[in-house]
Design goal:
Elements (H helix, E strand, L loop, with lengths): L8 E3 L9 H5 L5 E4 L2 E4 L9 H5 L5 E3 L3 H8 L5 E5 L3 H4 L2 H4 L2 H8 L3 E4 L1 H17 L3 E3 L4 H10 L13 H12 L5 E6 L3 H8 L7 E4 H10 L28 H5 L11 E5 L1 H12 L5 E6 L17 H14 L31 H10 L19 H9 L9 H18 L3 E5 L5 E4 L1 H7 L17 H7 L5 E8 L4 E10 L4 E8 L1 H59 L1
Parallel strand pairs: 5-6, 5-8, 7-11, 8-9, 10-11
Antiparallel strand pairs: 1-4, 2-3, 12-13, 12-16, 14-15, 15-16
């Protein structure tokens, strides 16, 4: 899972949000999901940079090679800058006129447009098209070349054995400049970094993106608009600046581009490129395919480094191309080696995928029947079957199925609500009953016949009315419902997004009654104790009084007896 020094695209784990957007966008599904993180798998990646362009959180980034370029500039050998023709989309017209000056300020000894190499590549491709009997796929886009070699290896033989404009220009520069000269390519493309590593004798010593260049200029405090205007050190051939837009190669080579011409197809964007290649794979006859993987071409490269619309960028490139002087004095290409060979590098699964394993995954994810297989694409895969295969291969997680997870969550939520001892009712903005659980039905002696009826049929709606009026977001009350013999602790709250209102009723009747009985018993006991005390006090007084009277009577009886005795 760890990226190597040769990796082109990296994942910033802190920014990855488990949204599957990069997986949905990746034309070859070279994204491994693990623990909610999306990782780029290097040996599956075609370095198109689509994930970089599509990630809304900036979690996918392209390798930065500015330090490598700076190291080249510190040597005694001259360093040339090969600037991709799409620079007209990345810089304003005023900046375009000063870009060569900025590059010279950084230390580059020779500044040229890659369109010089593009012109030679277009001419060589046109020559091959005249002699090729079967389909011919142009190889200017390295992402397309990677796609064919890894995922459609049967089409490798249809690839035009011509280097890309970047490699052609680098080889030409090194042939013309001083021995030991280095070449730094600057463009909008991530795949160019991988191409420079893969192509033998590419002649490209370092690849920078326009974003890297802009950040470098900013760190060096070089303001383009504050520099003098200057030009490039060589001029491309006619129409070569059209190369970064769809159909640019055909225009540069002066090939037929009639929409009705079945032998010439200019195509851009992952989906259309894949469909054209699939058509070729089915056995097309003579056909020249000019594919660019980025939508609208290189002007929409993942590191173009500008926020203008794609159509504005296209207009800027066309305007720049039409404004440039035409020349017939081009660097000779007679001795320039434009040949290359492509070998298949098919991507093979790490484990054996069987129908039994696929069925097991489908069953575990609730896709046991065809009807259960929604094929919604929310997980990033086009079908539930493809996702199951990815799970088997360790590229995806079973929990990625959002409809299934949502259904399970809803089922769990429904079970919790249905089994809750608390009464739960849900209302709309008109305070009409949308749903209620069994506990609510028991507490308020109602049935499903009340669905769609207003809550005031059951109780005072005033707490709900507070929520609807915006007077409160949460209401807590202790309410006695004498009609139902209930005492409830009640909570009312609003579901903002759904514009619904929920009432939660906890029956505390027994506890309240028990509490009342306790207080009544306590009060009665105290009254009884007081009464008993009073009775005891009265009894004591009576006894005392009676004892006093008895004593007096005894004394009187004794006195009489003594008197009688004396009389005798």
């Amino acid at each position: 899972m760890q990226s190597t020094p040769t990796s082109v695209v990296f994942t910033n784990k802190a920014r990855c949000r488990d949204c599957y957007r990069c997986l949905r966008a990746c034309p070859v599904k070279a994204i491994r999901m693990k623990d909610g993180q999306a990782y780029v798998v290097e040996d599956r990646c075609i370095a198109c940079g689509t994930c970089v362009r599509e990630c809304p959180q900036g979690a996918k980034t392209i390798r930065v090679d500015v330090e490598k370029a700076q190291a080249l500039l510190k040597t005694n050998a001259p360093v040339a800058a090969s600037v991709a023709p799409s620079f007209a989309a990345a810089f304003t017209p005023a900046q375009q006129k000063r870009l060569p000056s900025a590059l010279r300020r950084l230390g580059f000894a020779f500044i040229a447009e890659t369109a010089v190499g593009a012109y030679h590549v277009a001419q060589r491709t046109a020559e091959l098209a005249q002699t090729k009997t079967g389909p011919l796929i142009c190889t200017a886009c390295p992402a397309v070349v990677n796609l064919v070699r890894r995922y459609m290896p049967e089409l490798t033989g249809a690839l035009a054995e011509v280097v890309s404009p970047m490699v052609a220009h680098a080889r030409g520069l090194k042939a013309r400049l001083a021995p030991g000269a280095a070449v730094v390519f600057i463009g909008p493309c991530a795949a160019k970094k991988l191409e420079a590593q893969q192509v033998a004798n590419a002649g490209v010593d370092c690849v920078l993106t326009f974003e890297e260049l802009k950040a470098w200029l900013q760190r060096e405090q070089i303001d383009l608009l504050g520099l003098e205007e200057s030009g490039f050190d060589e001029t491309p051939g006619p129409d070569a600046q059209f190369f970064p837009v769809s159909g640019g190669l055909a225009k540069t080579a002066q090939l037929a581009t009639d929409l009705l011409d079945e032998e010439m197809v200019s195509v851009h964007g992952p989906l259309d490129v894949m469909q054209v290649l699939q058509t070729v794979a089915k056995g097309s006859a003579r056909m020249l395919v000019d594919p660019l993987l980025c939508p609208q071409g290189c002007i929409n490269g993942p590191a173009i480094g500008c926020d203008t619309t794609i159509f504005q960028r296209r207009g800027d490139v066309l305007k720049y191309a039409r404004s440039r002087p035409r020349t017939d004095h081009l660097p000779p290409a007679d001795n320039l080696d434009l040949r290359t060979r492509f070998t298949p590098q098919p991507v093979t699964p790490d484990v054996k995928v069987t129908e039994e394993k696929i069925r097991e995954v489908l069953v575990r994810t609730g896709k046991s029947s065809i009807e259960d297989q929604l094929n919604c694409g929310a997980c990033g895969y086009d079908s539930c079957r493809e996702k199951a295969i990815a799970v088997i291969c360790g590229m995806a997680e079973e929990e990625m199925c959002m409809p299934t997870m949502r259904r399970l969550a809803e089922q769990r939520g429904d079970k919790i609500i249905e089994s809750s001892p608390n009464g739960i009712v849900m209302l709309n903005e008109q305070l009409e009953i949308l749903s209620m659980n069994p506990a609510f039905r028991r507490m308020f002696l109602c049935t499903d016949a009340l669905f769609g009826k207003r809550i005031h049929h059951l109780m005072d709606p005033e707490p709900f009315e507070q929520l609807v009026a915006g007077k409160a977001r949460l209401v807590r009350e202790l309410v006695r419902h004498d009609n139902y013999g209930l005492i409830c602790r009640e909570i009312y709250y609003r579901l903002d997004q759904e514009k619904q209102y929920v009432g939660l009723f906890t029956d505390i009747t027994d506890s309240q009654n028990n509490s009342k009985k306790y207080h009544d018993l306590k009060a009665g006991s105290i009254a009884q104790a007081q009464q008993l005390l009073e009775n005891q006090m009265n009894l004591a007084q009576t006894i005392t009084l009676q004892l006093g009277e008895s004593t007096a009577q005894c004394e009187e009886l004794a006195r009489r007896l003594m008197e009688l005795a004396e009389e005798k």
